[in-house]
Automatic annotation (TrEMBL):
This is Glutamate 5-kinase. GO terms for biological process: L-proline biosynthetic process. It comes from the Bacteria. Residues 6-235 form the Aspartate/glutamate/uridylate kinase domain.
Length: 258
């Protein structure tokens, strides 16, 4: 398989933080090191990073993730600062510049705004910067909300004409049944076509801090594979697995581009 030249990597909230809501700095550093190395090798990288609300509400001293929109927006405003500060510091240590890109659904769906966003991505990538993308939760309301970063990452992969989308999660791929309840569940290593039977394997979010689940990942796969983009779901526990993914080696579940 030809090595991808432009890759979108998404990492979820539960993979970035400990149970107490604090950032998992060791994992973040390992992720940044691998992404920096891939960038050094000539692969253009876009990172879609969750975690703003999860980090923010903990930093504000709130007992749980807010359910009201103002609380979520305030938490996102605080948490996004913390996330970008940490990413900027870590990527700088490996010699790379990062750029914050915050999106809402209207930016993606409005033709003129979409074109402007695409031009921004292309310019940043051409200059060697690493765009770090999140939903703009600080101003997002239901009318313009994307809702989860699996969906956002599929939109971004399509916008930037990526060769590959990698979803890094707290689960290492798609199983033929729920591995949390069935110890004998079998990992499906490759999906050639997303059928109704495959979609039926989706479920809710298994994480207290995440917003996505397997269903949102399968929906993302359906979106990008229809655009000729491969997608892979892998565990975020060891970011070095990205090397295997880009080399085309067996890792997690790969959804073949149509």
């Amino acid at each position: 398989m030809e090595k991808p030249s432009r890759v979108v990597v998404k990492i979820g909230s539960s993979s970035l933080t400990y149970e107490n809501g604090k950032l998992n700095l060791r994992r973040m550093d390992r992720l940044v090191r691998v992404l920096s190395d891939l960038q050094n090798s000539g692969v253009q990288v876009v990172l879609v990073s969750s975690g703003a609300i999860s980090v923010g509400f903990r930093k504000l001293g709130l007992p749980e993730k807010p359910h009201d929109i103002p609380g979520k927006q305030a938490s996102a405003a605080v948490g996004q600062c913390e996330l970008m500060y940490t990413y900027d510091k870590l990527f700088s240590e490996y010699g790379h510049a990062v750029a914050q890109v915050l999106l809402t659904r209207d930016v993606v769906e409005n033709a003129e705004m979409n074109e402007n966003a695409v031009n921004t991505f292309d310019t940043l990538l051409g200059l060697g910067a690493i765009p770090i993308v999140n939903e703009n939760d600080t101003v997002s309301i239901d009318e313009i909300k994307i809702g989860d970063n699996d969906t956002l990452s599929a939109m971004v992969a399509t916008m930037v004409r990526a060769d590959l989308l990698v979803l890094m999660s707290d689960i290492d791929g798609l199983y033929d049944s729920d591995p949390h309840t069935n110890p004998g569940a079998r990992l499906i290593e490759r999906v050639e076509r997303i059928t109704d039977e495959i979609m039926a394997l989706g479920g809710g979010s298994a994480s207290a801090v995440g917003t996505g689940g397997m269903l949102t990942k399968l929906t993302a796969a359906k979106t990008v594979t229809a655009q000729g983009i491969d997608m892979v779901i892998v565990s975020a526990e060891n970011p070095d697995i990205l090397y295997d993914v880009l080399d085309g080696k067996p890792a997690g579940t790969r959804f073949a581009a149509q």
